[in-house]
Amino acid sequence: MSMSPSNREARLLRFSVFEADLAAGELRKNGARIRLQEQPFQVLTLLLQNAGQVVTRDELREKIWPADTFVDFDHSLNTAVNKIREALGDSASSPRFVETLARRGYRFIVAVDVIASATTISAAAESGSTRAGTPAPHGLDTAVTSPGAEVALHPELHVPVPRRGLVRGLFALIQVMYLIFYVSGLAHLRGADRIASLFVPGWRAQFIVAAVLVTGAIGIPLRFYLLSAVVFDFRKLGATFARLFPFVLALDELWAIAPFLLLPQIGVGLAFAATAALLYVPFSERTLVRMAYSGRAPMLNRS
Q: Is 89 left (phi over 0), alpha (psi -120 to 50) or beta?
């Protein structure tokens, strides 16, 4: 299996909220060390260095379990992979990091960034010393990206892969916003009737009030479902939201006129501006879900 030079020399690899310090043999999550035994860490290292490619069971046996090691290889490998998944909070049935290919091997399916390597840090320090005419400062800790490394891109959206926590947080805030709309609209039905009568008098105004009542009553449980799904990181939210999107789109486009309920307070101009912005929100929701819950995570970009 071919491996790029930058990957072989890399001493710090980052993926999602995790870092693998190959020099120290440590796995860290948001800076906090996660206990992982030596053999599982060796398996993880090999998967990280070949992210996006299948690492076969024979290759794992050759590199980590020498021929003169008298152990049950299948049991040892399965145990090591299970410990890796436990450390990463991963699942074999719905993998986010380590994908199992039956009777073949394993594949790491998340973008891996090469943060620093021994050769690049040394070169950077030397270069800095030459330019400044003084020795490089002791304890250089600035991360240096290896030459030729590219930013990992989302395979479908062609944008740099963002942090999942940020994306999920934005999606959750949108659900909270709509919950506020629904509750406020239902709490001020008389005001909705009064404002609707200014534009469409008669039975049409009553129809608008009824639409606010019905869609608000339907929208509240929908938003609680989406909010709980993203808070608890429901792995199938991507596929579920794709099926719900036509209904969510219709509901959101209707409630895009919610700012007109505040017409006496904000005026016609600001109500139109807010409505124009809200018309785009359902498409933003779909994009956020695709970023956080795409069917296949982006792989390491290799030079």
A: left
Q: Are 296 and 155 in contact (CB under 8 A)?
A: yes
What per-residue confidence (pLDDT) applies to 228? 93
pTM flag (> 0.70): no
Regions of the chain with pLDDT less than 50: 1-8, 118-150, 295-303
Task: Give the span between the Cα atoms of 195 and 140, in whole angstroms.
Answer: 64
pLDDT per residue over 190-215, tens digit each?
A: 666 666 565 566 666 566 667 777 88
